[in-house]
Design goal:
The protein is of the alpha/beta class and 115 residues long. It has helices spanning 7-14, 55-76, 91-94, 97-111; strands at 2-3, 17-20, 24-30, 43-47, 81-87. A hairpin with a 3-residue loop joins strand 2 and strand 3 (24-30). The longest helix has 22 residues, at 55-76. The radius of gyration is 13 Å and the shape is globular. The two termini are 20 Å apart.
């Protein structure tokens, strides 16, 4: 799993499929052939707006999203795809961790229907 770092990568994912669930928003896109990394890895990015809270609250929400992604994406993500996980106000930090992982599984399943 690789981390998205460039703004252009986040913007490309924002123009693709989206799925909102109770604790997060998940954006996903299949990379084009000319964009493929040599190892065809799953790439993921994390973001939280200031609506989530102060810096401490945003960082906590992103840490929880990172751990959920680390646990779920290797099994349910697809190689050659980019994912962006967006934290939601109050919900990301307060949701029980097992439910957070379940939300991510559900979102990925819905995003990949038809692929």
């Amino acid at each position: 799993m690789q981390i998205l770092k460039n703004r252009s990568e986040f913007l490309a994912a924002a123009r693709a499929k989206k799925r909102g669930v109770g604790s997060m928003m998940v954006q996903a896109r299949k990379r084009r052939d000319d964009e493929q990394a040599q190892d065809d890895a799953i790439r993921v990015g994390f973001t939280c707006s200031k609506k989530v809270g102060n810096a401490v609250a945003r960082n906590r929400a992103k840490r929880r999203l990172r751990e959920a992604a680390r646990a779920i994406l290797p099994q349910y993500g697809k190689p050659g795809w980019d994912y962006v996980l967006i934290g939601k106000n109050e919900a990301t930090a307060a949701r029980p961790f097992e439910d957070l992982k379940g939300d991510l599984k559900y979102a990925l399943r819905k995003l990949h229907e038809g692929h």
